[in-house]
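Regression test case RT-17, inverse folding.

Input:
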């Protein structure tokens, strides 16, 4: 019995690679050279293009398109209607498919509803891009980004809370939910996982996501 669910209205082209426990919902399309990991949820009208990679445990909201050369790490959350653009200077009269550049989204990132990510950026581990924001440059691990163009306004934990530390300086904070410790040195925030590392993917088993106690 298959461990993958594909809704009858979805199209998964021959050659596409889907991991166990992944669901592909209404009217979605996964192209033949796409890779989608285990325990992913692709909502309604999602598109995953050739040469795109979706890691394990990812959640793609309705109408999200992951184009060629976009690579998502594990536990990436793309909220409904967020956008990856894949050509820097598009023209209808010019074919620029040979000039695609990679967009790297690292483990644990959240990309808010109606946000936009331009091509060629690297989004650091656990970064949080607020709804409606436009990311035009690389951002740091755990950075909370807001605006158009997006700027860093703080830090976000792996659990999904704002970390009460300044953008620069020194400091330390411990997450009461996971036991993670975050240490700020200058303008870099380093996480040490606590008793339960919610971003450590365990392959081959159905994922039980951590329940919120908020």
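Golden output:
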């Amino acid at each position: 019995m298959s461990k993958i669910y594909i809704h009858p209205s979805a199209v998964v082209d021959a050659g596409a690679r889907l991991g166990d426990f992944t669901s592909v919902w209404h009217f979605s399309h996964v192209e033949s050279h796409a890779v989608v990991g285990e325990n992913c949820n692709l909502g309604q009208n999602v598109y995953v293009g050739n040469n795109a990679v979706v890691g394990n445990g990812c959640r793609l909201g309705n109408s999200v398109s992951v184009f060629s050369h976009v690579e998502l790490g594990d536990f990436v959350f793309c909220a409904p209607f967020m956008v990856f653009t894949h050509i820097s200077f598009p023209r209808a009269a010019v074919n620029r498919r040979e000039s695609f550049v990679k967009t790297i989204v690292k483990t644990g990132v959240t990309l808010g509803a109606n946000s936009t990510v331009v091509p060629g950026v690297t989004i650091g581990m656990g970064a949080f891009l607020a709804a409606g924001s436009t990311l035009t440059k690389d951002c740091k691990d755990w950075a909370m980004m807001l605006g158009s163009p997006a700027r860093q306004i703080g830090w976000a934990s792996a659990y999904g809370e704002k970390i009460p530390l300044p953008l620069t300086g020194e400091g330390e904070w411990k997450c009461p939910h996971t036991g993670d410790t975050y240490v700020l040195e200058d303008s870099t925030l380093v996480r040490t996982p606590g008793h339960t590392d919610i971003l450590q993917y365990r392959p081959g088993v159905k994922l039980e996501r951590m329940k919120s106690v908020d």
